[in-house]
Amino acid sequence: MEFLKISNIVSYLITIELCSVISDGDKVKVTTTYGKIQGNVHHFEDINRTIKAVDKFLGIPYAAPPVGDLRFKPPQQPQPWKPAIYNASSFRNVCIQDPEYNDFFWPNLTIPQSEDCLYLNVYSPHRDPDSEELYPVMVYIHGGGYDAGSPAVSPGDVIPLWGIVLVTIQYRLGPFGFITSGDCEAPGNYGMLDQIEALEWVQHNIKFFGGNHSAVTIFGESAGGSSVGLLVLSPLSKALFHRAISISGVDLSPFAIGSSEEVTKQSKKVAKQVGCSVKESRKMIECLRSVDAFKFPVKEVNVWRPIVDNNFLPDTPRNLRKAGRFHYVPYMAGFTSREGSYFFPQLLDDVTSENFRSYTETVFYNIGNKYGQMLEENLPKALLDAITLLYTPWSDREDDIKTKVGLADAVGDFTMTAPTHTDLILHSKHAPVFMYEFAHRSNLNPRPLWKGVAHKDDTPYEFGFPLMNLTVLQQYNDADRNVSDMLITLFTNFAKYGNPTPQPVLGVTWERFNSNKLSACTNNGEKARNDVIIIHGKYASPVPDVVSDEFYEW
Asked: What is the rounded CA–CA span in Å between residue 275 and residue 456?
């Protein structure tokens, strides 16, 4: 398939008893049936948008604390706090995880960890207290491999300037979100049920914040992207959202789910580590509920996954997709141009032409077993031969940089690009879909040039870091600010209209994805597509792409 690059980016239900919004200086109050909530107003006079201020409500409980007898159970509704006024001026506890994760992505983040972590954040356009206007809603699901992450590292302050109510949610992670006894005693998927509960909360409460519960778009990145895909497949999420965006991960990605057998095995391993017997499911889970939360091991990552449980997920994503058993909502999905340079950093640093084949085998064996348990033995020779043939830089075999790029691209294509393409082909049979690649690399990006635009490099642009001058991992320039403005415009247009370009954006119209469409030509006469865009900062031209469904179908 081919891509068309965008040009000129650089140049540019609880029953409602009472609903009221009261502004008081830089404070704002919302009245709900749980009680009053007080948040803060954030002003943006320097950003060129009609809306100039955003109401921020942080750390709102959407479920009861999942502690004690509620550990390893579906989430329950929170208790009202009225007549007290709930102070929503700061983020609440981050879900328990390896603290080194957020230390890496957001240095000096000081939010405490706790099992009591089922909170969400609401960012809404600042309104007149008497306004009845309702805005479309976007609900963000963070990534982190289902065992790490928090929306606190992606503050959504500027997105409402585009006329959107943004909700960012937390959900149980690692063993707390996915332990299973392998039977009805503890079926697993609690983190996914948390996501369902948060969407239920949105349906019943978002009107208080100026949001339209009938126009909800879910979006997420990495494990959040595959979560979005799984929500599209889940019968429990019916009517809870109306559009979906998967970023750098879909339900067909090899890390999206695990096997029930492997997650059960991991659960028993944890039980033994904390001193619980595994001979009987009921006693094992009772014992696990009594263990101090901070005694659970959380440093072993990429071992906790959603599973087919005949409740949240009735079958594997592949079977559900092929059978057409999913919600037929407009769907957007995309990835960065060099996703794979983020993963296996030690192997990528050490790979050479001499060890390329053996390193490829190691990498794909790990993906197949750690992410989804797809391989029982060594990588099939025919598959290893094909990957080596496709990704070895044959004309520059002694160029170690090109060799690193080859291995990185093989990883990215397998985990993100090819699954996304397959996902959208199957979804497009029933609903409109849009596909993109994010390929903008800032001139101020401090990482080696060969790593390109890696996994997660797009997240700061989606949340407007350049526009807010949030320089956590790097500085930003005017080109970065224009790309961020462009990306937010495309995403919020999709949330509003089901179409990222209802009118041309910077002269570009983004057509629906159509796997049968070949409508443009490159300079050398090759066919190119104009229904998939590459978000880039410099120029526009059709470029070839070698990824095919066959690569994923093995």
From this structure: 37
Catalytic residue from among 126, 142, 427, 455: 455
Neighbours of 519 (CB within 10 A): 13
Q: How many CA atoms lie within 13 A of 117 on its CB side?
A: 28
Question: Sign of torsion, CA 433 466 123 134?
Answer: negative
Angle between helices 400-412 and 381-391 (to 10 degrees): 130
546: confidence class by pLDDT, cuts 50, 70, 90: very low
Top pLDDT among 381 and 167 is at: 167
Q: How far apart are CA 386 and CA 542, in angstroms?
A: 26
pLDDT tens for residues 168-186? 999 999 999 999 999 999 9
Q: Is 553 a catalytic residue?
A: no
Catalytic residue among 154, 222, 281, 428: 222
> Count of alpha carbons within 13 Å of 417, Cβ hemisphere only?
27
pLDDT tens digits, one per residue of 351-362 = 999 999 999 988
286 catalytic? Reply is no
Cα distances (Å, whole numbers) of residue 544 to 15, 21, 423, 527: 54, 52, 20, 9
Active site residue 142: no
Distance, CA of 315 to CA of 333 (rounded, Å): 22
CA distance 283 to 268: 12
Backbone phi, psi, residue 405, to 5°? -60, -40
> Token pair of 165, please?
């109510």
pLDDT of residue 180: 97
pLDDT(64) > 50: yes
Q: How far apart are CA 494 and CA 159, in angstroms?
A: 13
Residue 279 burial (CB count, 10 A): 8
Query: Of all helices (H) and strands (E), which one includes residue 360?
Result: helix 356-370
Q: Distance between CA 12 and CA 508 in Å, rounded?
A: 13
